[in-house]
Amino acid sequence: MAGANRLALFDCDGTLVDSQHAIIAAMAAGFASQGLAPPPDEAVRRQVGLSLEVAILGLLPPGADLGAVAGIAAVYKGAFHQNRAHGGTVEPLYPGLVEALDALEAAGFLLGIATGKSHRGLVATLDHHGLNGRFLTLQTADRAPGKPAPDMALRAMAEAGADPATTVVIGDTSYDMEMARHARVAALGVAWGYHAPADLLAAGAAHVCHDYAEVPAAVAALIRV
């Protein structure tokens, strides 16, 4: 659509911040609360990006009581909140992120986030890094269907006055790429997160960046109008 705004829509975990250690620790606490062995670290990383309950379902061992999901989710949230409150949650920014955001804004892009985090968790992360206010639209899996459904991308575009031809999703997992494909927007993968570049390309990424310095030009190249 002529005159539509240009939107760079970022994932959070594994794309903006490296949150794997906090996520793995909270998931282990949740599983322990139900008498279950913690899932392997790599299995947890593979689920990052999905909404919490869907991720837990994907990690339950065969034959496990599906009723355990709610209890695991409650303990996970509590553990994450407690760790954050006591300084135990470490989610460092990936190198070069702030400079990439500056470059995208200077080029006229609006910024947004679509994440499997809760809204409270996302805001806490952005506050911690002084990034609240940088993103026009914040889409979280507790306020819309999670990835790979297109809903968060569609809501972000509506809030930003963008459309599919002027929007790029930037993320580290196949779920991000699938969300972009379902929303009919361009998808840009990043190689520093939790899924391999080959998985991102197979899921629909047009390109995979290996450093944040590559992102602004790669985003601009994917805008079709």
From TrEMBL:
**Molecular function terms from GO:** phosphoglycolate phosphatase activity
Which EC number(s) does UniProt give? 3.1.3.18
Instruction: List the transmembrane segments.
Output: none
Q: What's the superkingdom here?
A: Bacteria
The yes or no answer to whether the keyword Cytoplasm is present is no
Look up the record and report any one GO term of the cellular component aspect: cytosol
Assigned keywords, A-Z: Hydrolase
Has UniProt tagged this entry with the keyword Metal-binding?
Answer: no
Q: Which NCBIfam families match?
A: HAD-SF-IA-v1
Q: What is this protein called?
A: Phosphoglycolate phosphatase
The species is: Nitrospirillum iridis
**Upper lineage ranks?**
Bacteria, Pseudomonadati, Pseudomonadota, Alphaproteobacteria, Rhodospirillales
